[in-house]
């Protein structure tokens, strides 16, 4: 409005806008209608826009849409498309609404506006998706966004982000309604402009529900040939899923275990050691490395490996990479023996990351307390978690915008004048959290600390791969943290860390002491209610978990992959179930404390912190509000959440994640 008033040369339209800005709608309407009449309708687009705004304010959405359309016919401005989209949304014309906001994105160049439009579009699609009476299917919304992504040749970042979001909310029934969606997803996997981790679960769904994969799973191992394995792995969705991600799929894990057996049998039976064999070994070995060799192998596998060793030591050495970690010496031998094969080169390149990581330098402020020694040793042995896909969509947003999606706006005012806060990630592990934060959020200074040097080396390597050179990584123990180390911070994240301290409250208090008054801290703590299944597992297998008997635990884990019992199937939904470091963290951690919401409420009072809200999904939020008469004030009441969790035990199966403010 202000920029228009400065630029406008038409005194009558300028005066009409001033009247509108002052709330004098009738006077504004009279002035603008008079101008339109005098010019016989041949007016600048701003005149029609003002008529649209006045009609919208009077809730005459149909007339407002007509006026905005007239403005667009005169001048295709992104802001007018945006106004039209909002109007159509209120008029329950949802497809036209999304179409209009997509045009707003296409015609916009300012990064700040694009972020706002994208955020609004996602919010609108989400709300349309959750409206019971919208009568607009996700398939219809997908088809609309798909038209725009292809028109932009996948190069418009905001539309690309919307497209990924649309795919991410698709269910099996939606996919069946869309023609050529598999080809579309294959195309976006191949292009990989970033953010594919958002659609990982949909790609997995396409794989395990495909007819070919279902039929292959139903066959016995001895009935499956190497060609069958090659055909499956060469399917684009399967290939890209395994290439880009660390899988968290019981179906695919069992398939790869089966595929390994087929490979060993093929070699032992004198099968031709051709390119297709190297392709299969490479794909399995890379995924085995990503999952830290958690795939179970039995005595028959060991015997077959030994038989291959007697026949051909080079093929034995190569096959071993599908089963367990090998030293640099053996990796070098593979390079020499198969130096001309592109599949083996690709395998070596992935596995060799471990050696590159060991060369990374980390500064240390470490004084390990006696209570932290066991935890440090565990994470030096198994840096948590191993991850490889780091092609994030970069969308630098002010932290306050993220907080306002979950918290009361008046509680985030500290960041009104701190668009680039000083940030601490306390317990950064291997860096997935800190890299994701830095790719998506504005910051002035970023410090990341962890007790494990090996985890920090991995984190710094991944940050370098992501071209983030301004993150400062330090080795530090939370129990010995104070202001002398790094000063104070505007914002701190400590997720999944405090519950592994001998004294969680002391560690939390140390963080509060280095948080600026009014600053915000995000905390993640295990729920004793949500982890009841894990507690039962530890009781049943106490000897194996207490002593971390890897062979026995992996054997138990394999039986869980095949088990029909609902108790064991519950574990399969935890992503931590699918790699060595995360599985150990899940069921056999050397030190863990669990919490209830009422216990957390007591701790917040003692720490002089104000609860600001949970980081939760829209579905969980809606479910909670349904049980509390849609009273949004209850979202910030821990007593209400405690009552809710008692009746919905899996609500926080990952952990409680919430923000709180230092008073």
Automatic annotation (TrEMBL):
UniProt xrefs under InterPro entries: Methyltranfer_dom, SAM-dependent_MTases_sf, TPR-like_helical_dom_sf, TPR_rpt
Pfam families membership: Methyltransf_31
Domain spans labelled Methyltransferase: 422-533
Source domain of life: Bacteria
Sample GO molecular function, one term: methyltransferase activity
GO biological process terms on file: methylation
Gene3D superfamilies on file: Tetratricopeptide repeat domain, Vaccinia Virus protein VP39
This protein's UniProt keywords: Methyltransferase, Transferase
CDD domains listed in its UniProt record: AdoMet_MTases (cd02440)
Name recorded for this polypeptide: Bifunctional 3-demethylubiquinone-9 3-methyltransferase/ 2-octaprenyl-6-hydroxy phenol methylase
Organism of derivation: Piscirickettsia salmonis
Lineage: Bacteria, Pseudomonadati, Pseudomonadota, Gammaproteobacteria, Thiotrichales
